[in-house]
Write a structure and sequence with these properties.
This protein has 614 residues and is an alpha+beta fold. The chain folds into two domains: 230 residues, Beta-galactosidase, Chain A, domain 5, CATH 2.70.98.60; 216 residues, Alpha-Beta Barrel (TIM Barrel), CATH 3.20.20. The strands form six sheets. Strands 3, 4, 5, 6, 8, 9, 11, 12, 13, 17 and 18 form an eleven-stranded antiparallel beta sheet that branches. Strands 19-20-21-26-27-28-29-30 form an eight-stranded parallel β-barrel. Helix 10 packs parallel to helix 11. The chain is globular and about 75 Å long. It starts with a strand and ends with a strand.
Length: 614
């Protein structure tokens, strides 16, 4: 395979082959470039190209375990301003592939594996090897995991090889799979271009611009390449969060109506049960309709008299780390700043409004000072050690303020990421949870800034095991927070089903904890004990099997088995759905160390921790 890069500069001829509007790959811009140094191999190093008019492209390739980190820098050494319409983080040519893997994603149904052949995608070259075939996909907006994850894997079944790529970008991104005059594919990825992402970037003489990074891994199975990509993610996990501690979030108990008294009652029930974090979710601020009060962050003192420090101190007195929820980038219609146009994102000269939400301009120094006081100030003054940062809609193609809507979008999201970093700088050791209506920001650049992330907003649906297993392909399980919502009506089988689903990542409890009877609590505590025994396998292991049914997520049928290994230990997680069969791992020659659950009927579950004997 040839590893290189591409750009398209405004004013140059677009590519032919009936491809304009589908791709900018192969434009006249690239005809001016020649290779000056380095190589175009899948190996570490720097490759430089230069055009006849002095524009330089630098591709930096660095090894990260079994993966390769790739990015492109454009330097304008010409005598004129240039306008980029297209810039790839990477381009691969000569990819042998007959099968394409993508991960589809919508709210509460994240990460579903979609596998198609080259024929399915209609990418076979024409009889005359003329006319470009293009499969272009990605995400436009500020929720990078919507419709698709920024992930792609290309498999060659004839020789058992597979190449996988992840993009590290929290705004508009794209992949292109192209076929024209050969029986191989060309694959590119990076910022969504002018056609797809409304993106242009002006560079004056002497200026440069760097693409987001891409992670590329090759191997013999989807399990192997996904593991390589995940191990190339290096999140800033807080030292206090290294031990896989269990979270309790009160949201599915109060549904946005927390109070000091309710928290106190929940703490009495949780005391002594080994919960590490107690998180107060939405509704602690503003008026009763909390969803309309987002943006001001004034404590509702009817619910929390005297402010949030008293309840944070109470949580700490019970041996837990207090956490709190913010949606810091947004304002709702009840906010006193809802019409402060000079500090808001605008499009076409008016505040950008999505439903009843508007958005702060995170590049604005006033906004940073305001949020520094309201968010960071409250965290500090009240003594919170955990912050859940939510984000509940996308701003679409972009905003006013730059040479293009797409470039403004990229810059605004970059400013958000800088504020995440500021939180950590001003409150060393704080645990940051990345949430975006659940899983809409589960991509490497956002995950790198956080200790944990909400895997989904699928709080109680039976499809949680499917969604949680999907996440093993794209994020580290020790960052993947999965909810077990406990209800007073739950049978032991249902409790086991919910708790076993949390073994795909980090355990988070919620629900009717004050109404559970002793037998129900016994089942919960047994599940928590089993989770703690499995913590090292969850955190350090490698997933070697995800056997999922091809089923509707709303009408589940069949059964699922996931196996994760760490040294000589194995964790096997089995869930049964409707019309299911008994399912278990191969335990021949193994010693079972612990078990939890029954797995003896439809909609039941069982997990095994076992040791493989040499």
């Amino acid at each position: 395979m040839r590893l290189f890069t591409e750009i398209k500069i405004a004013g140059d001829a677009y590519p032919g082959g009936f491809s304009t509007g589908l791709t900018m790959h192969g434009s006249a811009t690239m005809e001016r470039f020649t290779l000056k140094s380095g190589n175009e191999e899948m190996s570490e190093g720097i490759t430089e190209y230069e055009s006849s008019d002095g524009i330089r492209l630098t591709v930096t390739k660095s090894k990260d375990g079994s993966a390769l980190r790739v990015k492109t820098n454009v330097s304008n050494n010409s005598s004129r301003v240039i306008s980029l319409e297209y810039l790839t983080s990477f381009a691969l040519e000569g990819v042998q592939s007959d099968k394409i893997h993508r991960l589809q994603s919508f709210w509460s149904a994240e990460g579903r594996l979609r596998t198609e052949t080259v024929g399915d995608l209609h990418l076979e070259p024409s009889w005359a090897h003329f006319g470009m075939r293009v499969e272009k996909f990605g995400n436009t907006g500020s929720m990078p995991v919507r419709k698709y994850f920024p992930f792609l894997a290309l498999e060659d079944c004839s020789n058992g090889s597979i190449t996988a790529i992840q993009l590290c970008l929290a705004s508009t991104w794209q992949f292109e799979i192209l076929s024209s005059n050969e029986d191989t594919l060309t694959v590119t990825g990076g910022i969504g271009d002018r056609d797809f992402g409304h993106w242009m970037k002006n560079l004056a003489p002497g200026e440069s611009f760097e693409s987001p990074e891409a992670l590329i891994a090759t191997g013999s199975s989807l399990y192997e390449v996904c593991d390589s990509l995940i191990r190339a993610q290096h999140p800033l996990i807080s030292p206090v969060d290294e031990d896989m501690g269990i979270i309790f979030n009160e949201y599915c108990a109060t549904w946005g109506d927390p109070s000091y008294e309710k928290v106190a009652g929940q703490l009495d029930r949780l005391s002594g049960k080994g919960i590490k974090y107690f998180v107060i979710d939405s509704g602690w601020y503003g008026a009763d309709e909390w969803w309309k009060s987002i943006g001001d962050w004034d404590v509702n003192e009817d619910k929390f008299p005297g402010g949030m420090k008293a309840v944070a101190d109470l949580i700490r007195s019970k041996g837990m780390i207090p956490g709190i929820w913010f949606e810091m980038e947004a304002l709702a219609s009840g906010s006193s700043h809802y019409n402060d146009k000079e500090h808001l994102l605008c499009k076409d000269g008016v505040p950008l409004t999505i439903g009843e939400r508007r958005f702060w301009d995170m590049e604005d120094p006033w906004v940073n000072d305001y949020l520094g006081s309201k968010v960071i100030g409250l965290l500090k003054s009240s003594g919170f050690g955990y912050v859940k940062i939510d984000y509940n809609d996308t701003i679409g193609i972009g905003t006013d303020g730059c040479e293009s809507l797409g470039e403004a979008l990229r810059r605004k999201i970059s400013a958000t990421q800088k504020f995440f970093a500021r939180i950590r700088e001003e409150i060393p050791g704080i645990v940051i949870e990345n949430c975006s209506s659940g899983g809409h920001r589960l991509e490497p650049s956002m995950m790198s800034l956080c200790s944990q992330a909400s895997f989904s907003d699928a709080h109680e649906t039976p499809s949680i095991p499917l969604i949680a297993a999907n996440m093993h392909r794209v994020i580290r399980p020790d960052q993947c927070q999965i909810w077990a919502v406990l209800r007073a009506s739950d049978t032991r089988t249902r409790i086991e089903y919910s708790l076993i689903a949390t073994l795909f990542g980090r355990m988070c409890l919620s629900g009717d904890i004050n109404s559970l009877n002793d037998d129900q609590w016994k089942a919960v505590e047994e599940g928590m004990d089993f989770y703690r025994k499995c913590a090292d396998v969850i955190k350090f292991g490698k997933t070697v099997l995800i056997d999922q049914p091809d089923t509707s997520y709303n009408k589940l049928k069949g059964q699922q088995l996931l196996v994760r290994e760490y040294k000589d230990l194995r964790l096997a997680i089995a869930h049964r759905f409707e019309d299911s069969k008994p399912v278990s791992p191969d335990l021949i020659g193994s010693e079972i160390l612990a078990e939890y659950g029954s797995g003896d009927s439809d909609f039941s579950a069982k997990a095994w921790l076992y040791k493989v004997k040499s």
